Amino acid sequence: METFDADWLALREPIDHRSRAESLLAPLCEAWRSRGWSRVLDLGSGTGSNVRYLASRLPAGQEWVLVDHDPDHLRALEHAEVPASVRSLKVVPGDLVDEGLSAISHADLVTASALLDLVSEDWLRRVVDACADAGRGAYFVLSYDGETRWSVDGAPGGQWEDDPDDALIRDAVNAHQTGDKGLGPALGPAAGAVADRLFRSARYTTRLLPSPWWLGAADAPLVRRLIAGWEVAAATVRPADAGRIHAWAKRRRATVANGRFTLRLGHHDLLALPPERS
Protein backbone atom coordinates (compact mmCIF):
# COMPACT_ATOMS: atom_id res chain seq x y z
CA MET A 1 0.00 0.00 0.00
CA GLU A 2 1.28 3.48 -0.84
CA THR A 3 2.75 5.36 2.12
CA PHE A 4 3.18 9.06 2.89
CA ASP A 5 5.97 10.66 4.88
CA ALA A 6 5.35 12.20 8.28
CA ASP A 7 6.20 15.73 7.09
CA TRP A 8 3.43 15.59 4.47
CA LEU A 9 0.94 14.24 7.01
CA ALA A 10 1.87 17.00 9.45
CA LEU A 11 1.40 19.65 6.74
CA ARG A 12 -2.06 18.45 5.81
CA GLU A 13 -3.43 17.65 9.28
CA PRO A 14 -4.65 21.15 10.24
CA ILE A 15 -6.14 21.61 6.77
CA ASP A 16 -7.87 18.24 6.96
CA HIS A 17 -9.33 19.12 10.35
CA ARG A 18 -10.72 22.49 9.30
CA SER A 19 -12.12 21.08 6.02
CA ARG A 20 -14.30 18.26 7.32
CA ALA A 21 -18.06 18.38 6.83
CA GLU A 22 -18.92 19.17 10.46
CA SER A 23 -22.65 18.70 9.92
CA LEU A 24 -22.03 14.94 9.85
CA LEU A 25 -20.91 14.97 13.49
CA ALA A 26 -24.37 15.46 15.00
CA PRO A 27 -25.96 12.40 13.32
CA LEU A 28 -22.81 10.40 14.03
CA CYS A 29 -22.92 11.25 17.75
CA GLU A 30 -26.66 10.59 17.87
CA ALA A 31 -26.13 7.12 16.38
CA TRP A 32 -23.21 6.53 18.73
CA ARG A 33 -25.34 7.26 21.81
CA SER A 34 -28.56 5.58 20.68
CA ARG A 35 -26.80 2.38 19.61
CA GLY A 36 -24.45 2.20 22.58
CA TRP A 37 -21.27 2.32 20.51
CA SER A 38 -17.80 2.53 22.03
CA ARG A 39 -15.37 0.81 19.63
CA VAL A 40 -13.69 2.61 16.69
CA LEU A 41 -11.56 0.98 14.00
CA ASP A 42 -9.32 3.44 12.12
CA LEU A 43 -7.93 2.04 8.87
CA GLY A 44 -4.65 3.41 7.50
CA SER A 45 -4.14 5.54 10.58
CA GLY A 46 -0.92 7.26 9.52
CA THR A 47 0.37 9.22 12.49
CA GLY A 48 -3.05 9.44 14.17
CA SER A 49 -4.74 12.49 12.65
CA ASN A 50 -8.16 10.87 12.65
CA VAL A 51 -8.16 10.00 16.34
CA ARG A 52 -6.86 13.47 17.20
CA TYR A 53 -9.81 15.03 15.36
CA LEU A 54 -12.60 12.65 16.22
CA ALA A 55 -11.88 11.60 19.83
CA SER A 56 -12.72 15.01 21.26
CA ARG A 57 -15.98 15.13 19.28
CA LEU A 58 -17.39 11.73 20.24
CA PRO A 59 -18.78 10.83 23.67
CA ALA A 60 -16.18 9.68 26.19
CA GLY A 61 -15.30 6.06 26.84
CA GLN A 62 -14.04 5.27 23.35
CA GLU A 63 -11.97 2.20 22.52
CA TRP A 64 -9.81 2.70 19.43
CA VAL A 65 -7.95 0.22 17.24
CA LEU A 66 -5.56 1.84 14.77
CA VAL A 67 -4.28 -0.22 11.82
CA ASP A 68 -1.28 0.83 9.75
CA HIS A 69 1.64 -0.92 8.08
CA ASP A 70 4.28 1.82 7.97
CA PRO A 71 6.90 1.25 10.73
CA ASP A 72 7.58 4.98 11.15
CA HIS A 73 3.88 5.70 11.58
CA LEU A 74 3.53 2.83 14.02
CA ARG A 75 6.32 4.23 16.19
CA ALA A 76 4.63 7.65 16.17
CA LEU A 77 1.30 6.09 17.14
CA GLU A 78 2.81 4.10 19.98
CA HIS A 79 4.21 7.31 21.52
CA ALA A 80 1.18 9.51 20.81
CA GLU A 81 -0.69 11.15 23.64
CA VAL A 82 -4.03 9.47 24.23
CA PRO A 83 -6.97 11.92 24.33
CA ALA A 84 -8.84 12.04 27.62
CA SER A 85 -12.07 10.80 26.00
CA VAL A 86 -10.34 7.57 24.89
CA ARG A 87 -10.53 4.67 27.34
CA SER A 88 -8.15 2.45 25.38
CA LEU A 89 -6.04 2.71 22.24
CA LYS A 90 -4.46 -0.27 20.51
CA VAL A 91 -2.05 -0.01 17.58
CA VAL A 92 -2.14 -2.96 15.18
CA PRO A 93 0.71 -3.43 12.67
CA GLY A 94 -0.77 -4.82 9.50
CA ASP A 95 -2.25 -4.24 6.08
CA LEU A 96 -5.73 -3.23 5.05
CA VAL A 97 -6.61 -6.63 3.59
CA ASP A 98 -5.71 -9.02 6.39
CA GLU A 99 -5.65 -7.14 9.69
CA GLY A 100 -7.88 -4.33 8.42
CA LEU A 101 -10.80 -6.40 7.15
CA SER A 102 -10.63 -8.92 9.99
CA ALA A 103 -10.90 -6.16 12.61
CA ILE A 104 -14.22 -4.81 11.31
CA SER A 105 -16.31 -7.37 13.18
CA HIS A 106 -14.80 -6.17 16.48
CA ALA A 107 -15.70 -2.50 15.95
CA ASP A 108 -18.85 -0.42 16.15
CA LEU A 109 -17.65 2.35 13.84
CA VAL A 110 -15.20 1.89 10.96
CA THR A 111 -13.43 5.05 9.88
CA ALA A 112 -10.58 6.31 7.71
CA SER A 113 -9.24 9.64 6.51
CA ALA A 114 -7.89 10.35 3.00
CA LEU A 115 -7.94 6.65 2.15
CA LEU A 116 -10.78 5.68 -0.17
CA ASP A 117 -9.35 7.32 -3.29
CA LEU A 118 -6.28 5.05 -2.92
CA VAL A 119 -8.13 1.72 -2.69
CA SER A 120 -9.83 -0.50 -5.24
CA GLU A 121 -13.57 -1.04 -5.64
CA ASP A 122 -13.02 -4.71 -4.84
CA TRP A 123 -11.45 -3.90 -1.46
CA LEU A 124 -14.08 -1.29 -0.69
CA ARG A 125 -16.86 -3.75 -1.54
CA ARG A 126 -15.33 -6.19 0.95
CA VAL A 127 -15.33 -3.45 3.60
CA VAL A 128 -18.98 -2.65 2.92
CA ASP A 129 -19.92 -6.33 3.03
CA ALA A 130 -18.05 -6.81 6.32
CA CYS A 131 -19.71 -3.72 7.82
CA ALA A 132 -23.16 -4.83 6.65
CA ASP A 133 -22.74 -8.39 7.90
CA ALA A 134 -21.82 -7.13 11.38
CA GLY A 135 -24.06 -4.02 11.41
CA ARG A 136 -21.16 -1.57 11.72
CA GLY A 137 -21.28 2.15 11.00
CA ALA A 138 -18.82 3.84 8.64
CA TYR A 139 -17.34 7.33 8.53
CA PHE A 140 -14.89 7.89 5.68
CA VAL A 141 -13.60 11.43 5.24
CA LEU A 142 -11.55 13.52 2.83
CA SER A 143 -11.80 11.37 -0.28
CA TYR A 144 -10.39 13.33 -3.22
CA ASP A 145 -13.06 14.07 -5.85
CA GLY A 146 -10.91 15.23 -8.79
CA GLU A 147 -11.79 18.94 -8.77
CA THR A 148 -9.13 21.67 -8.55
CA ARG A 149 -9.71 25.38 -9.13
CA TRP A 150 -7.52 28.45 -8.63
CA SER A 151 -8.72 32.01 -7.91
CA VAL A 152 -6.73 35.16 -8.54
CA ASP A 153 -7.74 37.40 -5.65
CA GLY A 154 -7.41 35.11 -2.64
CA ALA A 155 -11.13 35.13 -1.88
CA PRO A 156 -13.00 31.79 -1.84
CA GLY A 157 -15.71 31.94 -4.45
CA GLY A 158 -14.03 34.87 -6.15
CA GLN A 159 -12.97 35.12 -9.75
CA TRP A 160 -11.57 31.80 -10.93
CA GLU A 161 -8.41 31.86 -13.01
CA ASP A 162 -7.83 29.07 -15.51
CA ASP A 163 -4.24 28.61 -16.56
CA PRO A 164 -4.17 27.30 -20.16
CA ASP A 165 -2.87 23.97 -18.87
CA ASP A 166 -4.85 23.57 -15.62
CA ALA A 167 -7.18 21.08 -17.31
CA LEU A 168 -4.27 19.10 -18.73
CA ILE A 169 -2.69 18.75 -15.30
CA ARG A 170 -5.98 17.95 -13.55
CA ASP A 171 -6.92 15.25 -16.05
CA ALA A 172 -3.45 13.68 -16.00
CA VAL A 173 -3.31 13.70 -12.19
CA ASN A 174 -6.79 12.18 -11.97
CA ALA A 175 -5.73 9.44 -14.35
CA HIS A 176 -2.63 8.83 -12.22
CA GLN A 177 -4.86 8.57 -9.14
CA THR A 178 -6.53 5.47 -10.58
CA GLY A 179 -3.29 3.50 -10.76
CA ASP A 180 -2.61 0.57 -8.45
CA LYS A 181 -1.63 1.87 -5.00
CA GLY A 182 -1.26 -1.65 -3.59
CA LEU A 183 -4.87 -2.87 -3.54
CA GLY A 184 -5.63 -3.02 -7.25
CA PRO A 185 -6.79 -0.19 -9.56
CA ALA A 186 -7.57 2.75 -7.27
CA LEU A 187 -10.95 4.45 -7.24
CA GLY A 188 -9.34 7.89 -7.42
CA PRO A 189 -11.86 10.74 -7.82
CA ALA A 190 -14.81 8.32 -7.96
CA ALA A 191 -14.19 7.03 -4.42
CA GLY A 192 -16.81 9.01 -2.52
CA ALA A 193 -19.60 8.32 -5.00
CA VAL A 194 -18.74 4.62 -5.25
CA ALA A 195 -18.66 4.23 -1.46
CA ASP A 196 -22.01 5.99 -1.16
CA ARG A 197 -23.54 3.70 -3.80
CA LEU A 198 -22.18 0.51 -2.22
CA PHE A 199 -23.43 1.39 1.25
CA ARG A 200 -26.84 2.39 -0.09
CA SER A 201 -27.03 -0.96 -1.87
CA ALA A 202 -26.44 -2.56 1.53
CA ARG A 203 -29.50 -0.68 2.90
CA TYR A 204 -27.44 1.91 4.79
CA THR A 205 -28.59 5.47 5.34
CA THR A 206 -25.86 7.65 3.88
CA ARG A 207 -24.87 11.30 3.72
CA LEU A 208 -22.15 12.32 1.27
CA LEU A 209 -21.06 15.93 1.72
CA PRO A 210 -18.32 18.09 0.19
CA SER A 211 -15.28 18.77 2.38
CA PRO A 212 -13.01 20.79 0.09
CA TRP A 213 -9.63 22.16 1.00
CA TRP A 214 -9.54 25.95 0.68
CA LEU A 215 -5.85 26.82 0.46
CA GLY A 216 -4.26 30.25 0.49
CA ALA A 217 -1.01 32.04 1.19
CA ALA A 218 -0.79 30.65 4.74
CA ASP A 219 -0.77 27.16 3.24
CA ALA A 220 1.99 27.87 0.73
CA PRO A 221 4.33 25.04 1.91
CA LEU A 222 1.62 22.47 1.31
CA VAL A 223 0.58 23.99 -2.03
CA ARG A 224 4.18 23.86 -3.23
CA ARG A 225 4.26 20.16 -2.28
CA LEU A 226 1.04 19.64 -4.24
CA ILE A 227 2.43 21.34 -7.33
CA ALA A 228 5.60 19.25 -7.18
CA GLY A 229 3.61 16.05 -6.80
CA TRP A 230 1.22 16.95 -9.59
CA GLU A 231 4.12 17.83 -11.86
CA VAL A 232 5.65 14.37 -11.42
CA ALA A 233 2.33 12.53 -11.69
CA ALA A 234 1.22 14.40 -14.80
CA ALA A 235 4.56 13.89 -16.54
CA THR A 236 4.36 10.18 -15.75
CA VAL A 237 0.94 9.92 -17.41
CA ARG A 238 1.64 12.35 -20.28
CA PRO A 239 5.40 12.11 -21.02
CA ALA A 240 4.92 13.68 -24.46
CA ASP A 241 3.64 16.82 -22.72
CA ALA A 242 6.47 17.05 -20.20
CA GLY A 243 7.56 20.48 -21.45
CA ARG A 244 4.07 21.94 -21.02
CA ILE A 245 3.74 20.30 -17.62
CA HIS A 246 7.02 21.72 -16.28
CA ALA A 247 6.12 25.16 -17.64
CA TRP A 248 2.73 24.96 -15.90
CA ALA A 249 4.43 24.07 -12.62
CA LYS A 250 6.72 27.09 -12.96
CA ARG A 251 3.75 29.40 -13.54
CA ARG A 252 1.81 28.00 -10.61
CA ARG A 253 4.83 28.33 -8.31
CA ALA A 254 4.83 31.98 -9.30
CA THR A 255 1.11 32.14 -8.40
CA VAL A 256 1.94 30.84 -4.93
CA ALA A 257 4.91 33.17 -4.54
CA ASN A 258 2.63 36.12 -5.35
CA GLY A 259 0.57 35.19 -2.29
CA ARG A 260 -2.83 36.39 -3.53
CA PHE A 261 -4.49 33.14 -4.49
CA THR A 262 -6.97 30.53 -3.38
CA LEU A 263 -6.80 26.90 -4.44
CA ARG A 264 -9.92 24.79 -3.98
CA LEU A 265 -9.17 21.08 -3.89
CA GLY A 266 -12.31 18.95 -3.77
CA HIS A 267 -12.99 16.17 -1.26
CA HIS A 268 -16.04 14.38 0.14
CA ASP A 269 -16.97 13.01 3.57
CA LEU A 270 -19.30 10.03 3.93
CA LEU A 271 -21.34 8.91 6.92
CA ALA A 272 -23.06 5.53 6.46
CA LEU A 273 -25.33 4.18 9.19
CA PRO A 274 -26.71 0.63 9.15
CA PRO A 275 -30.40 -0.14 9.61
CA GLU A 276 -31.46 -0.67 13.17
CA ARG A 277 -31.50 -4.33 14.11
CA SER A 278 -34.56 -5.67 15.90
Summarize the structure.
The protein has 278 residues and is of the alpha/beta class. It has helices spanning 6-19, 25-34, 49-54, 71-78, 96-102, 121-134, 166-177, 191-201, 220-237, 242-258, and strands spanning 39-43, 62-68, 86-93, 109-113, 137-151, 205-210, 213-215, 262-273.
Describe, in plain words, how this protein is organized in 3D:
By secondary structure, the chain is of the alpha/beta class. The chain has a single domain (6-273), classed as Rossmann fold. The chain is built from 10 helices and 8 strands. It has helices at 6-19, 25-34, 49-54, 71-78, 96-102, 121-134, 166-177, 191-201, 220-237, 242-258, and strands spanning 39-43, 62-68, 86-93, 109-113, 137-151, 205-210, 213-215, 262-273. Strands 1, 2, 3, 4, 5, 6, 7 and 8 form an 8-stranded mixed sheet that branches. Helix 6 packs parallel to helix 8 and helix 9 runs antiparallel to helix 10. 38% of the residues are buried.
